[in-house]
User: Fold this.
Amino acid sequence: GGATRNVVDAAEGTGVVAVEVAVRRCPGCGAVGWREFCENCGTATALHGTCRRCRKTFSVFVEECDKCGAEVGYSAVQRIDLRQELASALQKIGEAAPSRVSGVKGLTSRAKVPEAFLKGVLRAKHGLFVYKDGTIRFDVTNAPLTHFKPRQINVSVEKLRQLGYFHDVKGDPLVSTEQTVELMPQDIVVSRKAAEHLLKVSRYIDDLLLHAGMRKLYNLKTVEDLVGQIVVGLSPHT
Assistant:
């Protein structure tokens, strides 16, 4: 796929690549492959480990072999038809291929379990990028804010009253976008770009839920729909 590891480009031609991914065994028919569900019978597969020294096999995840003490491996180089995977994902969402779906050089986890191909396609559809640990991020600077004017944060007086903002700092009824209001302790104000990013993420999650046979969670149409939503703040290094 070139320098950008574009899966769409790599899928052209034969589309078959050799990748080190998890080895999984079907408890039903015994077939060995890399998918979460067996291609032959549809049964959920399980990780299949092999001792790197004595070759003893394991059906449960263990760090070391109980026979010789050597490391147990759960991955192997396997051939994957990217063209088939891409076509299957696009068929599920009923859309044309995005111009770029970036992959990674290699999986760094112990078992090297790849994520569902559909997730990468949907991220590309919504213009989202994933960090190496699988998270979608938006970096911001956390600045203290105690007061604001409705005009400054582009939220209507009517909406603010729905959220419990009934008076300004002088105790007068909130009726104008020019009045100064004290920000409640549980509330935050995000930038327009952050809101646009969160909107993309919500649409991506809703698409995932739909293709998993569940209902949408957010159903957000515009960035204004984010006003009043519950958020959780977390420092990624914790």
The chain has six helices and ten strands. The radius of gyration is 25 Å. The helical segments are 7-10, 82-93, 117-125, 150-153, 157-162, 192-211.
